[in-house]
Amino acid sequence: MTPKQTRVMVLNDMEKLDRTLFRLDQGFELQFHLGPTLQGKHVHVYTNYPAEGERFERHKFHALDWINPTGRQDDSDKFCNLDLKISGSYQYYFGHGDKERSGGGYIVVDPVLRVGVDNHILPLDCISIQTYLSKCLGPLDEWPDRLRVAKEAGYNMIHFTPLQTLGKSRSCYSLADQLELNPDFSTPGQAYTWTDVGNLLEKMKNEWNMLCITDVVYNHTAANSKWIEKHPECGYNLVNSPHLKPAWVLDRALWHVTCAIADGKYEDRGLPALIQDHPHLHAIRGVLWQDVFPKIKLWEFFQVKVEPAVEQFRALLQSGAKPDRIKTDGKHQLKIIQDPQYRRFGNTVDMNSALETFVPHGSSPGAIEDCCNWLRRRLEEINDEQFHEIKHHQEQATNCIDGTVSYERLADHGPKLGPVTRKHPLVTRYFTFPFEEATLEEDLELMNQPEKSCHFLAHNGWVMGDDPLRNFAEPGSNVYIRRELICWGDSVKLRYGNGPEDCPYLWARMQKYTEITAKHFVGVRLDNCHSTPLHVAEAMLAAARAVRPNLYVIAELFTGSELIDNVFVNRLGITSLIREAMSAGDSHEEGRLVYRYGGEPVGAFLQPSLRPLVPSIAHAMFLDVTHDNECPIQVRSVYDSLPSSAVVSIACCATGSTRGYDELVPHQISVVTEERFYSKWNPQAKPSSPDEVNLQSGIIAGKLALNRLHQELAAKGFNQVFVDQVDEDIVAVTRHCPSTHQSVVAVCRTAFKNPKHHRYADEVPPMCIPGKIEEVVLEARTVERQAGSYKKDERSINGMPGYTVEIKEHIQLKDSKVVRQAGVTSRGSSEYVQEIVFEQLTPGSVIAFRVSLDPKSQELVGVLRNHLIQFNPLYKAGSLSDPNTPDILKSTLKQIMSKMTLADMNILLFRCDAEEKEDGGGCYNIPGWTPLKYGGLQGLLSVMADIRPKNDLGHPFCDNLRQGDWMIDYVSNRLMSRGGTLAEVGQWFQAMFAYLKHIPRYLIPCYFDAILVGAYTTALDATFKQMSSFVQNGSSFVKLLALGSVQMAGVGQYPALPPLSPALSDVPYRVNEITEKKEQCCVSLAAGLPHFSAGIFRCWGRDTFIALRGLMLVTGRHLEARNIILAFAGTLRHGLIPNLLGEGVGARFNCRDAVWWWLQCIQDYCNMVPNGNDILQSPVSRMFPTDDSKPLTPGTVDQLLYEVIHEAMARHMQGIEFRERNAGPQIDRNMRDEGFNIVAKVNPDTGFVYGGNRFNCGTWMDKMGESERAHNKGIPATPRDGSAVEIVGLCKSTLRWLVELHKQGLFPYNTMTIHKDGKQLSVSYEEWDRKIQENFEKMFYVSRDPNDPNEKHPELVHKQGIYKDSYGASSPWCDYQLRPNFTIAMVVAPELFTVERAWEALNVTEEKLLGPLGMKTLDPDDMVYCGVYDNSLDNDNHNLARGFNYHQGPEWLWPIGYFLRAKIYFAKKLGKDTYDKTVYLVKNVLSRHYIHMERSSWKGLPELTNENGQYCPFSCETQAWSLAAVLEILHDL
Prior knowledge:
This protein has 40 helices and 61 strands. It is globular and about 135 Å long. Strand 53 (1311-1316) and strand 54 form a beta hairpin. The chain is of the alpha/beta class. 33% of the residues lie in helices and 17% in strands.
């Protein structure tokens, strides 16, 4: 069962993709997902793809329903979808809020073509089409004999030019009656109908396996069409298009010039009827400028009659008229109104604008007269401007007439029409004139007689370099008056208007024409597509698809721009665009076209079945020559017909030709003048017979072989292409099948110049073909034969009899005449190459080899594919079972990985360079490029995720894989050295790679990718199985963040955590490789990668416990969370938890906040883990039972956790005061002496914990100055001494919890005993809790009331309505700085805040501190704010040097978690409306984190960014607390 193909389109606000092509197949699912700019918004997606059971209507859109797979508030994965079952072009658009459309585009669904009695599918890339001019087929009963030539030459589709009645010119595309079958196809005894044609086509489909398409011509009808005489409104005439009158007048004048020249009236002026040289052209110019233009006065159609206008204006002034300001929109500009009827001097003056522009100085007659004179002068100026504009038009018209006459009568490459006559006029007429000849003056009279002027219809044609999206016959275009139209005098341009209501008869007629066509033909070619009004073609094709849903639509566009091509392809649902090999000037360009129009590169990666929808180029129908272009034999040489055809046939797209090419007809078969019939098929035909052909005629035998090959390659999935330009004339094209790894290599030696007259090199460079050549599929060349020379036959379209193809098919290499020898060379263990030396690859010859891998490689690839089926059923094709499967591969990888712990996963997937080096290894380094980010699979997958979608096989990563086995061995050896299940996974990789190493190197990247993608996805599945249901059922974003837990939590060579109590159960152990003793191996959390990942700098108390809730509890890693909590509990000393852990023994107790984060985590553990309160009874091995004890071994002194908690609280209440051990530069080279003095106490009045001094920094904002030059060394940037707001909040949270635990009988203490002034005192937990509650807002809230009695320093207030960052700092102004820390207190102790005040403070914070990914650490209005962190900069700036501003502006990520969680909490209290707006904000902010993580090769979130989210090179690339904080927001949602 092949997996369902799903494509994902990400919608971005204001993204309009009308000119981007998205092609999809029937059976695909299309999903619309929201991009970051739309996350959280209420977006509606609309489409005109019909709902189930409804008919398609182009203008009928319906909204799609959103599907939210997780069913949660975090709907970042939500999507709406379409199951694509019907071919055609469909539009989608989306909007949000009050914007109905804020983006949109088109999708094109390809049709499915079926052929044969069994209705089997004909893939688009299998198509081989041949064009027939229908009028050259003769009577319908003779068609089978003539069409049989296409069948016998291997084509499977025929393109007929229109089968309708032709117009007077006999051009195939000038149709007199769109509804009637051409009577030429009937015989005297038998009148044929459309039904007879339909029966023949059906018979061809069933018996010959051939499909048929035909042209539709919407743009014009034959000038002699009877129906347009009755319905002249269907064309552009002088009644419905009066803007064409001036052009018509010029056209009549030119006709009369033709008559005068033909009658010899200009001979005395040097202008005879036979125009032969440039003086004659000059004479034409003279006639135009001296006789024609002055006589017809075209400018008068655009001018104003001055005097009547002035008189009208005078009358208005005299009556005191005033301008209507509303109509003039305040612009003082005279407006001229163009006469809609285009009469001479018909233009009028907008009197309102005249009154606004020309204002008299008074009401006296003199003032009015002055004013009228101003107007008169201005009108004369305007008339003059119009005169000059028409003069420019006349100059262009003269140039165009000159160019036309020059081409038609003088140019060597032109038709050389001979003398000017009424049949061959000087220039083609632009309008029909169905009346008797008269004088010009009499002709011009007719212009004003509507019943006659409605029959002057504009001809169609084309305009060089015109905008294809503009209709050149509509008002605003000057093409007709400037004579820029290259005119088809046999056809009238049709005028559809904006819709059926504008010309009902024409729309109805053309719809019927379309329906007849769609009934009988599987597809249509849109003739003159780029000039057909888009809305007309859209409507007609919709009518055709209503008759035949799987309509195949092709067109040739001449827009010169792929973007404009896409407009046509999108709006019309064009399936294939016609491309032509004849457009290539040399073989190199011809090869490039093959590469451009189809296929993936050889060795391309297997793409996942669910993947982003990427823009494509239109499917190509690549023809060697189209039916309306010049003959290749004339342009190139007869010898090039075969090799250029071969280059085309080997292309991975639809291909084809035109009838006559294969028979070597040495001239263009004209769509206008050709009246002879095609020759018939007769296997016994003689070479000299002009009206019959067989396999020996021309290159038909070669074409048959090439068409068969083309169809086989497409049908069997040879969809990979490589084009090699061997030398200037030789193109080698490889088609490769990615499942069987068979290739066909076609080597074509083109002959753009005739070998008889051009010297080609005798030596042909040898070629190396990787693999084993199974056979020569075909070798062929064009040769001369004795059959007489070419003579153009009177009755039949005949080719050159003197040439045929010498061809051999399916022969062994030794029997080849083209190849002299083929040596086998082996490059390394897995490269099997055959070197081909050519004997007779003469110009005009072709050879194609079928190549397999050598037998050993073929077998190994098959076995490898067999083992890959466990990951993707697509590998079944081409797979082989292995009788000698190694034992390790007898289990699936899923079974092996199910035994792995998450600590094992940390090694398998992640570990940065520092972590790897600790074990004596390192991350893999690609020479000349860059080392990978991780030693584990993620390091490789991050790079491959960029390479795979683009098939970037030239990337250094792929080069490294092709050049040697180093990377392959690195992956397996790294794991095998580990022991345990990891070693088993390593053995699995080693066994898989054993196959990989012995297949051709060009295939290694794609199979290496397949193995790694399979292993990686299996590892992720196994990882999430061990996590909480929140993760397992969560969005992709949740899972990505949860992987951060695996990324950060690991066990190094040396355990980072101090040992736990031996009395504790469920502790992981391992045997130390060096001491061979059992040791504990609990995971520890790295603070961030790569800077805080290994050695003593890996583990920090504060970082660990800020990250623990998100990374360990939310993800369900409860046991590991317990072990981390208890390990740190064992290091308690002085009532504090260490900041830098240093394995406990080297711990530094220099932070005031870590203990409170630790206590918060214990509370979270108890609340979130089933039976979580049991942890309070867990044994803790005290390393330092007293402040001064030496580190004790585990188990010497054990206490229960609740006793350790009580001790930490009591020590604070008693007051902590000590000097750090080993104080001095040996533990901190920057700290000043006073900074080593640690204080943490409780204010007896407020209950606030306070401490620190101005020379140390005991909270998370812990930057110590390092620059002697800037004099900030030893000075903390942010001491935050006094009572830091988050510590007060964490303390309050802990007290609330302990009081509650005591009530439940789970915590035995309700008081602390302290000693003050020699007395023993008892302080209750409840009283401490109450004091903080009573004093918090009094002391921390910065009121908007200037007379607030609690405000001790009103002069320091900078922002009102916020909460202070600290209380009682040694520098009082620091208390008042706006920072994001109070939001932490809001989350852990929301009871301290009144809702309205909290909300106001959060809004100020949002406005001032919220960045794209993080929170500014300081108010940008603060004078020391600086948002760019540069730790290497050392200068004289005290506030910046050596990164002194680490926490003075840069945007840290983890506080955003607390800010958004606080917003969510308080928004809920303020009602639904506020809550909904907040959820939108949250989703919008988080979408940026999601995008960052998806794009990050570290798959993480950084520690911080510079201002406004800019990248900071000094930040950790992925930080534990950043990941945790974002995961906690999603958990809260």
